[in-house]
Design a protein that fits this description.
253 residues, mainly beta, seven-stranded parallel sheet, 21 strands, globular
């Protein structure tokens, strides 16, 4: 029975990977005041585009070619963030723009790990895709490079992506570089497809895991390239939720 359950779950993930994205409504961040000039703070503009997209019932938020400085942004239900070729979301090197956020589900990491560049919690049907880059600027002085031997080493260092208690997550094609901490943390979430992404997070800071699959279910990670200063892919349970039904296929780690 348990083998059959796993087979059915993996077939369901295979089916979801082949589905077309249903994010037809379009929202361009330029129309909300974002400027890809590598100097303008675009946090509010990008968040406004995401909020408008979510409030309309969902769609695609497009980031055109250019370099967009941003603090923390939060994804909403039925929103796909599309990073086009030549686009880069670049973290503002100042912790002021990354408010501490403690997830609502239990984890022994919650007391000291609270910072993220792109965050989602309790969301459904969310997507980040494209040929663009998300740069965490983990080498910045604001995200202090603290030795792993010191107990405060997890503090004040944003992850690039943190997805908490979400259902229906797709992350495809993008490049993630220079995270200040774990690059991509999936926590307590379900029905996840990660396909064709690249992660380079080796020299910017410490504890630079590639992907952390933490208390999640029904996860497929395929055709990814990850080079990191710590775990390339870590399967763990930092809280009270177990990990179930994970398939990792054709990845270079």
């Amino acid at each position: 029975k348990s083998i059959l359950t796993v087979i059915l779950a993996l077939l369901a993930m295979q089916y979801s990977l082949g589905q077309s994205d249903n994010y037809s409504s379009q929202f361009n961040v330029l129309n909300y005041g974002a400027k890809g000039d590598s100097s303008t703070n675009c946090t509010a503009a990008i968040q406004s585009a995401i909020d408008a997209c979510g409030e309309s019932g969902g769609g695609t938020v497009t980031v055109p070619s250019g370099v967009y400085l941003t603090g923390m942004i939060t994804l909403k239900d039925n929103v796909c963030l599309n990073l086009t070729a030549g686009s880069e979301l670049r973290a503002i090197p100042d912790l002021e723009y990354f408010p501490a956020t403690e997830p609502g589900i239990p984890s022994n990491f919650n007391p000291f790990y609270r910072w993220s560049m792109i965050y989602a919690e309790n969301a459904k049907n969310i997507c980040i895709k494209g040929q663009g880059t998300i740069n965490g600027q983990g080498q910045a002085d604001a995200f202090e490079r603290i030795s792993p031997k010191r107990p405060e080493r997890y503090q004040n260092r944003p992850s690039i992506l943190r997805i908490v208690n979400c259902k229906g997550v797709q992350v495809k094609g993008i490049k993630l570089i220079n995270s200040a901490f774990w690059t991509f943390h999936l926590m307590g979430s379900k029905d996840i497809v990660v396909h064709g992404i690249s992660i380079y997070s080796r020299t910017a800071n410490y504890n630079n895991d590639g992907i952390d699959i933490d208390g999640c279910e029904d996860v497929r990670v395929s055709d990814c390239y990850i080079t990191s200063a710590d775990d390339a892919i870590s399967i763990k349970a930092t809280g009270d939720r177990p990990v179930r039904n994970v398939l990792i296929d054709n990845c270079l780690l």
